[in-house]
Amino acid sequence: MTHVHARIQAFLQQRNAQPLQHGAHTMPDAFYNKAGALPYVAATERRYLVMKPVPKHAHLPPPAYQLCKGTRMQLLPTGWYDITEGSAITGIPETLLATALREGIEELGLSLEGITQLCDAGPYMFASTKAQSARHMWLFTAQLSSEQALLPMEEVADSTAQRRWMTLAEFTEHGRGDHTAILADIDAKLEKK
């Protein structure tokens, strides 16, 4: 884990995320426990890299494709640990961008070397699949040089069943419902950029 954090910090010394058009937010960064990365390629029609998680419960239908997101971590004297909702941050928290990149590497096989542009897409709400309650997350887009600019699937976390490139229309058909509106909003922001 420390190795991934060191790679991300070295990468962020060379790059920063440009803001996409989004309104001001009033909640501090510490409010956001979740962050995610949305890799895309700018072809004739933008294609986004999304993932399908491994089902956690065999008695439920398999999950739909979704945007890559995950829980922020904090550095404590004994190592890196998730920041769980409702718990106090007692260590040094990851930045939202560092969380997004780490989750992109883990869940999608995002290769930092393949990123040509990073953008801060801002805060979004989604529904927790477990508790069915509203959650907050912060998203970043990562334009890649090509669809092949990824780590091999063998290096992706076991929690990812599949990763797939999709247009907005394809994601609307095959993606998670509460993530579809988020992707449509980000797609519109990228169109204006």
Give the gist of this structure.
This protein has 193 residues and is α+β, with helices and mostly antiparallel strands. The chain is 25% helix and 31% strand.
Structural notes for this entry:
The protein has helices at 2-14, 96-108, 168-174, 177-192; strands spanning 18-19, 34-41, 47-53, 70-71, 73-76, 79-82, 92-93, 115-127, 134-144, 160-166. The protein is an alpha+beta fold. The protein has one domain: Alpha-Beta Complex (Nucleoside Triphosphate Pyrophosphohydrolase). The strands form 2 sheets. Strands 1, 2, 3, 4, 8, 9 and 10 form a 7-stranded mixed sheet that branches. A hairpin with a 2-residue loop joins strand 5 (73-76) and strand 6 (79-82). 31% of the residues are buried. The mean pLDDT is 88.
The structure class reads alpha+beta
Enter the CATH topology name. Answer: Nucleoside Triphosphate Pyrophosphohydrolase
State the CATH superfamily name. Nucleoside Triphosphate Pyrophosphohydrolase
Number of domains: 1
Share of helix among residues?
Answer: 25-40%
**What is the first-to-last residue Cα distance?**
34 Å
SSE series: HEEEEEEEHEEEHH
- What CATH architecture label applies? Alpha-Beta Complex
Instruction: Give the helix tally.
Output: 4
Parts with pLDDT < 50 across at least 5 consecutive residues: none
CATH class, named Alpha Beta
Radius of gyration: 16 Å
Principal-axes geometry comes out as globular
Number of strands: 10
**Average of per-residue pLDDT values:** 88
Biggest sheet layout: 7 strands, mixed
Strand portion, in percent? 25-35%
